[in-house]
């Protein structure tokens, strides 16, 4: 039983994303007409208004575009984890795509496992996946191995 | 388009009403709404039975039917709710003006009533176990829960790109507090604040501390709009609605605007184009302004979006008392959401009216117009009032 707010995994517009994260894959939408890639997913292509998109895999490498540190009071499911970082990641191979994430020290570590002092804009990060319910696996991010050794 | 109806100066705000502001007030939200609306109508010298238009925000929990029944209104022919809460405050003024200019109504009332203790007052705290809606889906699972989290992350990036600091945030908080210290109805009237106080405050969501966040208060504010012709027969000096605009950019998101090509472009820029196209006054003509300030960084985005300064220059604009009384553009002369009351920006509207009447506790001499805006991080709205 998780106490954090989760999406429905069977929404028609986003099911493909959550199906992929359960297989430990990160995907974004690509327009079948103009090849524009977009995230967050939505029913039409934002560039050409075509109504057919497909899911394409992203490498899962990025850098921190921005971040903040949440202190309480907040929702009960997060209150025992404050202060914890919140990050926005820019994908390396598609810099126009950004996604909100959590920064963790190891694949199964808590979302408060990386100290604020270790986070900066531009920090390289790699994806990891954490199953948080039967149907939802969340992508999370770890400082790239070469980076996490720095003081 | 020869039959286009332009809004310029065709309508006027003729009444404003405010309750006391406080915490844990005894009255219900419905009672507070009625108190503010009745006070606004009394201010104008108009009977509730003459009201035929009602405008509010989508977060308003006192509905048009409640208001019309409670105050004995008869035949209501125009009603509208603006989306996105605090982004729509000035939209209610614009819709009131449009309704009157196009003959849909003769007397329109706008209001906002809110109790922090009201069950619906803090949207983020009512999140269900499973998230509905595409916006929250891409934020909440990773712990971006509250509006302050969303804006804090935006401001970290803003600091990085433009060299802004927490001192600039303090400039905003301190300026508005000093204005509240002159306004006896302001919640923070009797509480001066120093820069040391600001930096000693607890974090809420780094880089934002307690004093970067608006108050959590109870109260209600209402305004009355009618035609400029009718306005000249009302009790008060008419405050003309000179220009009114709304705007947002395709692809943008409310508050957590991380996903567009250029998130640091103020979303107010689109609203600004429409507003200044309608207005005889330019940004450089504005001597006093009321900005939505649920969080201090919003003031920088508003300054930039409406052209009071250039992109990335909003923080520096606040240096040397830039937005305090006596500065180059006094902002939130009644104390704002940070220090007067938080009512989704309706106190910006009433303070704008007071400036145009010459009755503000932070009166700016010779102000012939007042700029008023709603939250710029989203589908926003703004008006220019003149006397």
TrEMBL record, chain A:
Cited SUPFAM superfamilies: Nucleic acid-binding proteins
Pfam family, one: OB_ChsH2_C
Superkingdom, taxonomy of origin: Bacteria
UniProt domain ChsH2 rubredoxin-like zinc ribbon: residue ranges: 18-49
Residue ranges constituting the ChsH2 C-terminal OB-fold domain according to the UniProt record: 55-129
InterPro entries: ChsH2_C, ChsH2_Znr, NA-bd_OB-fold, Thioester_dehydratase-like
Protein name (Swiss-Prot/TrEMBL): OB-fold domain-containing protein
Species, as recorded: Aminobacter carboxidus
UniProtKB/TrEMBL annotation, chain B:
Highest taxon in the source lineage: Bacteria
SUPFAM superfamilies the record matches: Thiolase-like (SSF53901)
Domain Thiolase C-terminal intervals: 261-375
Gene3D superfamilies (UniProt xref): 3.40.47.10
Transmembrane residue ranges: none
Pfam families hit by this protein: Thiolase_C_1, Thiolase_N
Domain Thiolase N-terminal: 12-187
Name the record gives this protein: Lipid-transfer protein
Organism field: Aminobacter carboxidus
